[in-house]
Write a structure and sequence with these properties.
The chain is an alpha+beta fold and 362 residues long. The protein has two domains: 3-276, 4-Layer Sandwich (Metallo-beta-lactamase, Chain A); 287-361, no CATH class. Helices cover 43% and strands 19% of the residues. Strands 1-2-3-4-5-6-7-8-9 form a nine-stranded mixed sheet. The chain binds zinc ion. The site of zinc ion has 6 residues, from loops.
Length: 362
């Protein structure tokens, strides 16, 4: 897409956004009790947590799969993760519903550059004239020159599907990119957001600790907890080991670093608030160990030598699926196997693929 075409696309999306705002304003507030704090869910749109922290559903692939978070402080805003290009209208609608304009956005922060988190960064930066992009140093170049990143995604999904899912990645001017090195502090109108280098899921991953609320935005480092698998308010948390940089030792260490902050809440991209994350860490670590054991068992079965990752993946996926379904059942999830396959099928496939690549390299 040429840049003038891309600009027209943004304008079209903005028009669409104003219709979404109208829908959101008709929404019904529904209070949801959570152990730590109370959130209010505005129908189809904005989830408001505490101390200026909000979330909304990107709508990526299915409802409640991927969230974008937003911190508003002294009427300045920082988005954390972006969803894909298709998320921009939702982001504009959310700003409008908060009485903010696009020029109130100071930062677009990426936990990492997998495209369900970062695919919308280019169009968002185009729409938010005052924003700086905050990203791990390993991700910075891919945001200013996204062709290699897109080529990698096209290799996985095929060109047509990749374009359908992620559109055209728009490059971001290098001078608008802030590299979030370990310990970097981002100042949002006086509110300090601490960036931690948290490899394990990906080497280009950061976690963002909000020093005011003591909440931590964990991207994919602290696992996934789909809302449909909550039982009596208890989340079902499991690790994500998607390709191609899964590293279990690094992931354990990153989870430990997040816990050392003694966060009051974790905000997961998949999906939303996890109160008192330390209460769920043991289950997350045990499931991570189980994933790794499944991969190591598969590697032992095929023996040494030049094992193809796809051969390993085919061996890993069935026991991984069985393990997750058994764990969900033990957690009290009463969905049918078919419903669980619908919810977890993509994760089983991608996690098996990531585990296979790790095991094949080991
Ligand atoms: Zn990811």
């Amino acid at each position: 897409m040429r840049s003038d075409e891309a600009d027209r696309e943004v304008i079209r999306l903005c028009r669409h956004a104003s219709r979404i705002v109208a829908v959101a304003k008709r929404g019904i507030d529904t209070p949801i009790d959570l152990p730590l704090i109370t959130c209010r869910l505005m129908k189809n749109e904005l989830i408001t947590y505490t101390q200026g922290i909000h979330a909304f559903d990107t709508g990526y692939l299915r409802p409640q799969l991927a969230a974008v978070h937003l911190i508003v402080h002294n009427r300045r805003a920082a988005f954390i993760d972006t969803g894909t290009y298709a998320t921009l209208p939702h982001a504009l609608a959310v700003l409008d519903s908060l009485g903010l304009t696009p020029d109130a956005v100071d930062y677009v922060m990426l936990t990492h550059i997998h495209l369900d988190h970062a695919g919308g960064a280019g169009v968002m930066m185009g729409a938010f004239p005052n924003a700086q992009l905050v990203v791990h140093p390993r991700g910075a170049r891919h945001m200013s020159e996204p062709s290699k990143l897109m080529a990698g995604v096209e290799a996985v999904y095929g060109k047509q599907r990749a374009r359908q899912l992620y559109g055209e990645l728009r490059p971001i001017a290098a001078e608008r990119i802030v590299e979030a090195h370990e310990g970097a502090v981002i100042n949002l109108a006086g509110r300090e957001l601490l960036c931690l280098d948290t490899p394990g899921h990906a080497r280009h991953h950061i976690a963002i600790f909000d020093t005011q609320s003591k909440g931590v935005f964990t991207g994919d480092t602290f696992g996934i907890a789909y809302r449909e698998l909550h039982v009596g308010g208890r989340p079902f948390l499991f690790p994500t080991t998607t390709p191609s940089q899964f590293d279990p030792a690094a992931l354990r260490s990153s989870i430990g670093r997040i816990l050392a902050l003694q966060p009051k809440a974790a905000y997961l991209t998949h999906f939303g608030l996890l109160p008192e994350p330390q209460r769920h860490a043991a289950a997350l670590m045990q499931r991570l160990d189980a994933f790794v054991n499944i991969a190591e068992d598969a590697a032992r079965k095929v023996g040494d030598g030049n094992t193809a990752a796809d051969e390993l993946q085919a061996l890993i996926a069935p026991p991984l699926r069985a393990f997750l379904i058994a764990e969900a059942r033990a957690h009290g999830v009463s969905l049918s196997d078919d419903e669980l396959d619908t919810l977890l099928g993509m994760d089983v496939d991608l996690n098996a693929q990531g585990l296979a690549l790790w095991a094949a390299a080991g």
